[in-house]
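re the bet — no i am not wrong, look at it urself. input seq straight from the record:
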Amino acid sequence: MNKTAPAWRHGTPAKTAVVLVNLGTPDAPTAAAVRRYLAEFLGDPRVVEIPRAVWMLILHGIILRVRPKKSAAKYATVWEDAGSPLMVHTKAQTSALEQSLRARGHNLIVTWAMRYAGQGPNSITAVLERLRSENATRILVLPMYPQYSASTTATAIDEALNWVTGLRNQPELRYVRNFADDVGYINAIANQVRAHWQQNPTPALPDASYRLVMSFHGLPERNLKLGDPYFCECHKTARLVAEALNLPAESVVTTFQSRFGKAKWVEPYTEPTLIALATQGVKRVDVLCPGFVADCLETLEEINMEVRAAFLTAGGEHFHYLPCLNEDSNWISALADLTERHLAGWPATPPNQQALEQQQARAKALGALE
């Protein structure tokens, strides 16, 4: 046991909390802020699985000297007045989920955290500490990654479990492993695509000039061979979305983006695939990123700017980027459903004041401390 517990008061109402966890973001679109963020993110051995000593030399000797300035310029193209898009949407999703759960009769603490936030107030550890001080004795950690990967989901869960280790008065801790095939999640994506098609009708499918492209974040191929299920879960999501839309297989393309470094990553890569489609006569693509539930640098800049330009330059004529689910009402409803299932058996509301006073009186009668 190595952590000091808050002073305990008998009769304090026990609370239930839900924590939405996303990856993280720089504090500002500046080289200094990006450098701090990348040092923590890329310094996580779950994220980069090569010998530590070698990687630290590469990271601090090359990458953190070169990449921050370039990445900061990209962040600046998508930065909002309220902050990074990922932060803005994560906060909005949290608020919408809380409202949805309250409408269903749940009186819960609903908050958010970022896996890579340094020692700031939005780190997983800092958020869990705040919840402990509010006597949240039941905490559901919900990583906002539909498809499980050791480099995303697992590192968020590691952080939560490391925090709880050594606590004298440990809360009940649950977490959501994945939701790649969740019916509500799949239907929310399919509904979003249908709404887009109503505004931008497709030719009769299958048609050689059209493709629906689902782009997921990439992963080193080595991780797949070591047993990471991410690649398979991405393909499962893509298949279920295509089935929900009744799309013929030849109209759908699944790709992987954001390749980093020289190692081979899972294929096909997004940008080269879109260039090839354009040269083969595909005139229109509708592109969505089901692995991201909130828009961020990888969707708004990499896909909607860089990949768009590459496709159009190669001869494509119409590039439509479909935003992530963000605060879509169907998605928030699905998220509330998912949360309810994982809260099963936990009290939806704390005891009322009268019940608390009765509990406190009984504790005092038994000689309990204040």
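see?? The chain has a mean pLDDT of 93. told u. also The longest strand covers residues 15-24. so pay up
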